[in-house]
Every structure is written in structure tokens, then in C-alpha cells.
Amino acid sequence: MLIELFGHAEESRPLAAILIEEPEALLHPGAIQVIRDSFIEASNFRQVLVTTHSPDLLDDPDIPAEWIRIVSRDEAGTHIDILDTGTKSVIRDKLYTPGQLLRQGGLQLNT
User: Fold this and answer.
1) Is the dihedral angle over the CA atoms 109, 45, 38, 21 positive or is it negative?
2) Dist CA 56 CA 22 (whole Å)
3) Which of 72, 47, 68 is nearest to 57 (CA)?
4) Predicted structure pTM score
5) Looking at the predicted structure, is the pLDDT value of residue 13 above 80?
6) End-to-end CA distance of the chain, in Å?
7) From CA 39, how far away is CA 89, in angstroms rounded?
């Protein structure tokens, strides 16, 4: 995973975006903070998309609400939405981390 995150770009092309699906499934719980920090560092020079159900992966006060999307699925299909204004404010004001909100069921869709 780290090799893909920090691979070198060809001189004429920027690094492609990378999608990592549920990295916590393959990690020791003690390594989650290290990999989260790696995602944030790699995002300085490439787009990094991560899907997760892990509150531990989101348990960082420096993860901005603007980075988070809620994905749901129903009979009509898959829906991707931003957080509602109140939830964004709670994260921005650092009252709760996104991980704490996920544990409490407090990550809300923008309605």
C-alpha cells in the first residue's frame, strides 16, 4: 500500500489518483494511525480516495469535514452525499472527530 501511495511519477505525467478500499481490514489496529498519516501525506501530491467503515481510521481531529462523503445504497441505487451543515460545524470546531461521530451514529447526510 505504501509503495502505491508514494510511487514516483513519470517526468511528464503526474501521479494518478489512488483508491484504497477498507484498509483497516488488512491492518493491525496499532498501524491504523500510521497508514492514516500516510494517506494524508500522500494527498499532498496525488488524489487519495479511501473507503472505510472504521471509526479508528477517521479518529483524527485534523480530518476536515470536506473530505468526508457518506455512501448509502437503496432500491434506487447508490448515493454519495456530503455531510450536513451541523455535522460539518461539529467537526470544524473540533468538538468531535469524524471517528467519534461515526461511533455515535452522528455522521449525517446533507438534506
Assistant:
1) positive
2) 12
3) 68
4) 0.80
5) no
6) 35
7) 23
